[in-house]
Design brief:
10 strands, mainly beta
């Protein structure tokens, strides 16, 4: 039993020294006042205000999700804080996807008793070059089935 206790203590010390972090734990070091990631080329797909009003003794937290449904890859993610840059300003982080992916998840959090106000911009390019690569293949005249192709991949069956 004594050796088990020593083993647990040693494991804890190693975790602390090596900087182990639980990925589900909120760490302020992961957040930023603004996010400017990537090269904003292609089409601006999203330009949206995200606002949460302040409530006393409350931290506001919201998540913004965008999914390009595998038709776009993201070239740029901008999350610009509209609050004054001081110790009470809300902050944001990308928690999933982002530049080079077809989706992004952005988490925004306020400080206690403060609101948040961000402008979210997402830029992207079509994965398959241009819209000329979109085609609809119809079944025989007596069938009502249609297949939508994007690039060379089947996107959906329509009827």
């Amino acid at each position: 039993m004594k050796s088990l206790t020593i083993l647990v203590v040693v494991a804890c010390l190693i975790a602390v020294i090596c900087g182990y972090r639980n990925p589900n734990t909120l760490e302020w070091a992961d957040y930023a006042y603004n996010i400017d990631d990537g090269n904003c080329r292609g089409t601006r797909l999203i330009y949206e205000d995200v606002i949460k009003n302040a409530d006393p003794y409350t931290v506001k937290k919201t998540t913004y999700n965008w999914d390009g449904r595998s038709m776009y890859h993201i070239t740029c993610v901008r999350v610009h804080n509209r609050m004054p840059h001081d110790t009470r300003a809300a902050e944001a982080r990308v928690t999933k996807g982002g530049v080079g992916q077809s989706e992004v998840k952005i988490e925004m959090i306020s400080k206690n008793s403060e609101g948040l106000h961000f402008i979210v911009e997402i830029w992207g390019e079509e994965k398959y070059g241009s819209s000329q690569n979109i085609g609809l293949l119809m079944g025989s005249p007596d069938q009502n089935d249609r297949v939508l192709y994007v690039g060379k991949q089947k996107y959906c069956m329509c009827n």
